[in-house]
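Technical annex B. To support the medicinal chemistry partners, we prepared a structural model of the target in complex with SN-glycerol-3-phosphate, based solely on the information shown next.
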Amino acid sequence: MKFFIDTANLDEIKRVKDMGLLDGVTTNPTLAAKEGGDFRKLIASICEVVQGPVSAEVVATEASKMVQEGKDLASISEHVVVKLPTTPDGVKALSKLVEAGIRCNMTLVFQPIQALVVAKVGATYVSPFLGRLDDIGQDSMHMLQSCRTIYDNYDFDTQILAASLRHPLHVVQAAEMGADVATLPPALFDKLLNHPLTDIGLEKFLADWQKRA
Ligand code: G3P
């Protein structure tokens, strides 16, 4: 399973890269807006740090404008993956960008039929949002499992990128369901290795070491 970081913050990206865990980056307009400044320059800086897929999302909502914006974003770096919302216009833009050889990540996916459609059209990644579904009392893991089954039934190459992850159990369950990628907010990377028995065990080992003969 690949781990991407879900942020546009360069310091956080560098910090997690130093943990040796980073395979790529996802951003969205909310995350990019938090950083401010010029979006193209921000994406270019992220691509210099991470030699892997970096999702940059369009903000246009009409297909031809999405295509234009997507082509511009893709010209920033070979690492850029254009992120598009899974709307009728987004899917139309996807088909044009796929024709142009540009990799796309289809975002805001909340049901398996959306995942089926974007795979048929040739998305490189599909991003089911798990946490946001759980937030409204729906079973995100059932949705993810259904996406996996559909993709396996038809040998789709589209990679399932589990997004909107809130806690370590989401990462574990996404791995159990066979998601290809998990994108984690920075704080979640730190939580992955937390266990009180690890801390207690280490404390005891070090205390015993001090008492050695
Ligand atoms: O970037 C896409 C997704 O991971 C956003 O997650 O936490 O805003 O629901 P969240």
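Notes passed to the chemistry partners:
Residues 140-154 form the longest helix (15 residues).
The two ends are 45 Å apart (CA to CA).
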